Amino acid sequence: MPTLLVLLVLSSVFNVIDPSSAAEDFGIDEKAVSYSGFQVWSVTIRSNAEREILRTIIDQYDVEVWKEPKTDKVTTTELLVVPQVQKELKVKLTQAGISYVIKINDLQAAIDNGNAKHNMSSLNTKAGHSMDWTSYHRLSDIYGYLSYLASTYPNRVELINIGTSYEKRPLYVVRIFNCSSPVVKPAIWIDGGIHAREWISPALATYIIRQLVEVPANAALLRNVDWYIMPVMNPDGYEYTHVSNRLWRKTRSVTSSTSCRGVDPNRNFGYKWGGLGTSTNPCSDVYKGTKAFSEPETLATSNFIKGKASSIKLYLTLHSYGQAALIPWGYDVVYPSDYSDMLALAKSAVSKFTKYRYSVGNAAALYYPAAGGSDDWAKSIGIKYSYTFELSDTGAYGFLLPASNILPVCQDFFPALDVFAAKVATLKV
User: Fold this and answer.
1) 95 Cβ partners below 8 Å, 6+ apart?
2) Dist. CA 167–CA 16, nearest whole Å
3) Which of 42, 46, 181, 188 has its CA 20 to 30 A from that of 301?
4) Domains of the chain by range and CATH?
5) Quick check: is 158 catalytic?
6) Active-site residue, from 239, 295, 297, 390
7) Are strands 312-320 and 187-191 parallel, antiparallel or unpaired?
């Protein structure tokens, strides 16, 4: 498509719906939250007694847990520690004989250095869009890229608006297909950006879209499989992390608390909703909401997937961090009857990684029980192969993975899709 026409198409899209503009109507505070002096500590737990002491400390000082401790063996817990309690926590841990290391000395510095400088309003006139995979992008860039692909490759890409977020941003799913084959094919679903602060997730999802659509060498991946990819399931939260609070996790809906907003979308899906690993406190990062699918984002996504459930054979949700392939069930340490099938496929996919090492196993056993997750729900409606992938890293940067890591993570991950596509192609619709 000529560049001028591309510019006109993108201009018309954003004259109708600018995904950044909703912030003004819903009172997003444009003054960014500062994390100056905040630190991330990695605490090593060697016994149940130490685990209980740490839990008491966490509750007493209201410390935010970045990475939960496992329940059955030596493990590490990663904590976000505010400046005011750092000295006292050091004394408490030392007295208890609990070892720790400071992984991030100043969180704001890590935030400031984490993303390459990027002109969010720029348009690469040669490419016809603003996307690259050397920096993290705002929602307008991502949505502009999706519109560009749908306009440029109409025989390969369908851009589907499945609903709107709480702040009235569109919820987009990209269908990628081979138009030369009219037969309904088995499909793979991929989503990213459920948790707003996990920026590597939408980055990988958009990288996958680019590889499937714009790289001819990957055409075989479309031969027998359709793809549904939703790069940003939580657009309100994602945009909020760029303008106000880099570590925001939840949606941006109003709750019963006047000071706390949002629901954890990955505790809001309607299978075992409200169980272990969830909270009734609207100020909690794992707040489950008032009911299953209370959030327009989770409701629209689930309705769309249910409408395609007969063809979607594999559900893949991208998160960070920890480098693990997690298999249902996640609501508790319970194993589905076909767990061995799921484990074998996940191990085969992970074997394709060469740069990063991933653990593979039951979600609740490898991490911690968490009810209301999207992967459990997908499994519950009959999608046999359902996985959560926790992407890089293992704690050096946590949620603040520098932009310089985007391409290494994406390039390492993409070959695993050959394994998933080969399996899905053998399944009947």
Assistant:
1) none
2) 15
3) 181
4) 39-105 (3.30.70.340), 139-253+262-425 (3.40.630.10)
5) no
6) 390
7) parallel
